[in-house]
Design goal:
With 182 residues, this protein is α+β, with helices and mostly antiparallel strands. The chain is built from six helices and eight strands; from the N terminus they run E-H-E-E-H-E-H-E-H-E-E-H-E-H.
C-alpha cells in the first residue's frame, strides 16, 4: 500500500469552490482510497492506494470533485516519498539568514519546456527569489507570499503548466501526516 498526497488548487478560497473536508474524505473513500485524511481547509489530502498511478489518481479525484461538488479544480497527486525529497532538497535551506517561515514550494503539473524555462531564468528580484528543479519551484518571499509577483498565475502563464503552491509549514505537516516512507 502506497501513501500519496493530493494537493487541490483553489478550493475554499475567497468564498469560491466551497468543499467540506469531511464530505470530501467520505467521497474519496467511495473511490477505494484508504485512510483519507485532510490538513486544513485548503485542499491537502493524504491517502493510501495500491493499484493506481499518480496521473490516474489525479484524474479520478478531479472527476469525483467535479461530479459531487460542481468544482473543476486541478489536482496534483504525488507519492509521500517525493514530498519528503522535495522538502529535504530545498536549496534555500543551505543559505544563512533565510527565514524558513517565508519559504514556499510551487509544484507544477509536469516539467516545463526548456524554452519557457529560459525565459524566466533571470526573473528573481532583489527581494523574492525562486529556483526551479524539474517540476518543483522553490520560493523565498521575505515580504510574504501574498506580496510576491511570483504567484501561481505568474508561473502558469510563463511556463504553460498548472501550478499549486504551499508554504513550508504545510509541506512539513503533510510529510509528518504521511509518515516517513522507508
Amino acid at each position: 500500500m502506497e501513501t500519496y498526497i493530493a494537493l487541490l488548487r483553489g478550493i475554499n478560497v475567497s468564498g469560491r469552490n466551497l468543499i467540506g473536508m469531511e464530505e470530501l474524505r467520505t467521497r474519496l473513500g467511495e473511490l477505494g482510497l484508504r485512510n483519507v485524511r485532510s490538513y486544513i481547509q485548503s485542499g491537502n489530502l493524504i491517502f493510501e492506494n495500491e493499484t493506481l498511478k499518480e496521473s490516474d489518481l489525479s484524474l479520478l479525484i478531479r472527476d469525483k470533485i467535479a461530479g459531487c461538488f460542481g468544482c473543476n479544480v486541478p489536482v496534483l497527486v504525488l507519492p509521500a516519498v517525493k514530498l519528503q525529497i522535495i522538502n529535504e532538497a530545498n536549496p534555500f535551506l543551505t543559505e544563512s539568514g533565510i527565514l524558513t517561515d517565508k519559504l514556499h514550494v510551487t509544484l507544477l503539473h509536469g516539467i516545463p519546456d526548456k524554452e519557457f524555462l529560459s525565459r524566466i531564468a533571470e526573473q528573481s528580484d532583489a527581494t523574492d527569489r525562486f529556483m526551479i528543479r524539474d517540476d518543483v519551484i522553490y520560493l523565498y518571499c521575505p515580504g510574504g507570499y501574498g506580496n510576491t509577483r511570483f504567484s501561481n498565475g505568474f508561473f502558469e502563464s510563463r511556463l504553460k503548466c498548472t501550478a499549486t503552491t504551499r508554504n513550508r509549514k504545510t509541506m512539513l505537516k503533510l510529510e509528518e501526516m504521511a509518515g516517513r516512507p522507508d
